[in-house]
Amino acid sequence: MRKVNTLFENIDAYGLTPSVTAPIKAQASFLRAYMYFDLIKLYGGVPYITNVQYLTDSLNVPRNATSACVDSLVKDLNYAVANLPATWTGTEFGRITRGAALALKARVLLTWASPQFNTNNDASRWQTAYTAAKNAYDTCQMDGYALYSNFSRIFLDAGVATNHEPLIWRAFNGSSNSGQYEGYDAVTRPYSQSAGSGGSTNNPTWGLVSAFPMADGTPVTSSASYDSIYYWKNRDPRFYATIVYNGAVYGLGGIGGRKQWTYNGITVDKSKQSTTGFYCRKNIDTTITAANTTYGKTFWVEMRFAEVMLILAETANMTGDQATAYTMLEQIRKRAGITANGDGLYGLQAGMSQSEMETAILNEREIEFAFEGKRYDDLRRTRTFDQLNGTYRQQMYISIKSPYTVSGLEGTNSTGGNAFDTINVNGSDYTKYFNHTIIPISGEKPINFLTTYYAYGIPSSNISKDPNMQQTIGWLFGSVSGTFDPTK
Fold first, then answer.
1. Domain assignment of residue 73, yes or no
2. Is residue 425 part of a domain?
3. What is the per-residue pLDDT across 433-468, written as a single tens digit (0 to 9) for each?
4. Number of helical (H) and strand (E) elements in the chain, helices listed first
C-alpha cells in the first residue's frame, strides 16, 4: 500500500501525459482497494492510509470506522472504473478492466450489506449493493464477459481468447523463478502422482460431497434417485469436475482410463493419503506428469463472471427482486449441465421465500466456487459459521471386505496391470470389494467458532506500537476490553 501511495505522490512529476498516467493510477487505486478489503473483511475498520508516511510524521494513526473504510474503497474503485478500459489486448492482456473494478465493488458492498456488518439489516445497504451488482453485471455483459461453456476448464483455459469468464486472475508460466509458478497441482494431487508434496491437502470433505445435487438439480436429501452406496451416480456434472472418489477414472499424467483408489491403506499413497477418502479434481492439469507438478502453469482466477451473477442474485433476492435471483441461478445451473426439467427451474424449488432463496444461493456458491477460496468468507459474512459449532468435518472411511486384501487388489492381473484395474465400481463390484462409513476426520476436534471471530482482534503487538489503535469489541488488550465497533 505504501508503494501505491508513493506512486500517487510522484507519478505526475515526470511530464507524462494524462492518457498515460490515468490508467496506471486507476490500476493502483484498484490494488489499494483490493488490499484494504482483505483487511476490512477480517477486522472491520482499519487505518485507511492514502498518503506516504515518513518517520517525521505522526504514525499513531487511529482506526477509521468501517463505514468510512467502505466509502474510501468505493471511491478508489469508482476512480478505477472511470479510468480503465473495457478490455486490454496484446501484452497488456490480463490487466484490471473496468468490469473487474465494478465486480470488486459489488463484492465489497455485498459484504457490507451482509449480517457480519449489517447486524440491523439496514435495507439501504442491500439496495446499494444491488445497484452495484446490477451495474457490474450489465457492464461486464456489454464488455464481452460471459459464462465459459466448459465449467471444468475455467481456470485451465483462463488465458484462452474464447474464455470470457475470468475477471481477476493471476497468470503463471511455470518458470522456476519465484512467483512465476503455482504449486496448486503439486499439493492437491494424490501423493503418488505429485512430486512428493501431494496427498493430504485440499481433500473434499463428506459435507462438500453431499452438497452437490443430483443431475436434475434436486438435493440428495430429497431425491428419490439418490443411492447412499453409489453416491456418485447421476450427480450434478460439477461433482465430477470437482470430486475424485474411490475407483473414479482420473487420467493423471495423461493416462487415459487411469483409476484413482482411495481405500484405506493403499500402498502407493499410504505415506500421505487423503484425510477424507476423496481428492480434489478441480483445476488440475491432468496432462502433466508427477515430476512436472512442482512448477505449475495453471492460472489462479480470483473472480469470475459467475460470481457477479451470484452477487446479483443474492442482492436482488434481498431487495425483493426474486425473478432476477431465479434467472441468475438458472443460468449458472444450465451452464453446469443440470437438466431443465419440466418446469424449467433446473431443480430449484418454485415460489421460494426470501430465506429459502438465500439458502439456495449460498448452497450454489458452495458448489460453484468449491476450492476457490470463497466459502470461509461466505460463512463469516452471513454469520452462519457458529451454527456449525459442535459438529465435525467428516471423511469417508473405505475398507476392503474380507476375504479380499490390499495385497490382493494391488497384485498383478492377467494383462500385467494391477488387479484393481479390473474392478467396475459402477456395478456390483463396489459392494463386493468395499465397505464405507462416514466418520469424523481423524484427529480433528469439533468446530468451535466463537462469535467474536466475525471481527478479528488487533494483535497486541500492533496496539503497543500505535496506542491510538482501538481494540475490537469482544477482544482484550492486556486486561482492557476493546471498544471499537466493526459494524459501524
1. yes
2. no
3. 999 999 999 999 999 999 999 999 999 999 999 999
4. 15, 10
Number of residues that make up the chain = 488
Exposure string for 109-143, b = 16+ CB within 10 A, e = fewer: bbbbbbebbbeeeeeebbbbbbebbbebbebbeeb
| Mean pLDDT of the 133-143 span | 98
With contact defined as beta carbons under 8 Å apart, do 382 and 447 qualify? no
d(CA 252, CA 201): 17
Residue 271: is its pLDDT beyond 80? yes
Residue 227 resides in a domain: no
Cell of 191: 501423493
Residue 134 belongs to domain with CATH number: 1.25.40.390
CA distances from 281 to 31, 63, 85 (A): 31, 42, 35
Q: What is the pTM of this model?
A: 0.96
Q: Which amino acid is at 87?
A: T
In a domain, 102, yes or no: yes
Omega cis (within 30) before 403: yes
> How many distinct structural domains can be found in the chain?
1
Domain that holds residue 91: 2-140
Q: What is the pLDDT of residue 419?
A: 87
Per-residue DSSP letter, 295 = S
